[in-house]
Amino acid sequence: MIVQYWMTYVIMILITFGLYWVIARASGKKFDLRRALIQAVFACIGLTVYFLILAA
Description:
By secondary structure, this protein is mostly helical.
């Protein structure tokens, strides 16, 4: 069931990277790829838990 929502995960990852890039540009700091990847992983885990709760 969760596999059919792959595009939702892609959009979630793109939004996470986009937000980190905008925040880095606005604050004048360097874009931190490692931190953005970690946040994207946590967002995907949270989305998976959300879908599992909905499926129950």
